[in-house]
Amino acid sequence: MDELLDSLAKSSDSAVGPDDIHYQMLKHLPSDALQSLHNTLNDIWLTGNFPPSWRQSHIVPIPKAGKDSSDP
Q1: Is 64 exposed, middle or buried (0-12, 13-18, 19+ CB in 10 A)?
Q2: What are the distances in angstroms from CA 37 to CA 12, 30, 67?
Q3: Which of 9, 10, 17, 37 is at 20 to 30 A from 67, Cα to Cα?
Q4: Angle CA 54–59–63, to nearest 5
Q5: Angle, vertex CA 43, rays to CA 37 and CA 49, nearest 5
Q6: What are the backbone angles phi and psi of residue 41, rounded to the nearest 5°?
Q7: Residue 56 in contact with residue 17, Cβ under 8 Å?
Q8: What is the pLDDT along the chain (72 residues), one digit of tens a residue?
Q9: What per-residue confidence (pLDDT) applies to 31?
Q10: Are the beta carbons of 56 and 21 closer than 8 angstroms?
C-alpha cells in the first residue's frame, strides 16, 4: 500500500486517458477504495492478466509554432 500511495503522491496532473480518470480522483479516494485498487493491481501483477482496455491511449500531437504541421 505504501508503494501505491507514494506513486500517487509523485504523479503529476496529466491528461486523462480513455477512462476519464484524473490523478486527482485517485489521490482523493477513501481508504477502502484505495485498498480495492491495491488488491486489483496486485492481482494483475501476480497473474499477468492485464485488462485490454488499459492498453489504449489517446495521442494528441501538438505542433510547434511556426513549423509545418504536415511534416512530422
Answers
A1: exposed
A2: 19, 11, 43
A3: 17
A4: 165
A5: 115
A6: -65, -40
A7: yes
A8: 999 999 999 988 887 777 788 888 999 999 999 999 999 999 999 999 988 887 877 788 888 899 888 887
A9: 94
A10: no
CA end-to-end distance (rounded Å), the chain:
42
- Burial label for 61, CB within 10 Å (0-12, 13-18, 19+), is exposed
Q: Which alpha helices (H) appear in 1-72, and where do they start and end?
A: 2-10, 23-27, 31-47
Residue 54, C-alpha cell as written in the block: 488499459
Q: Which residue has the cell 484524473?
A: 22
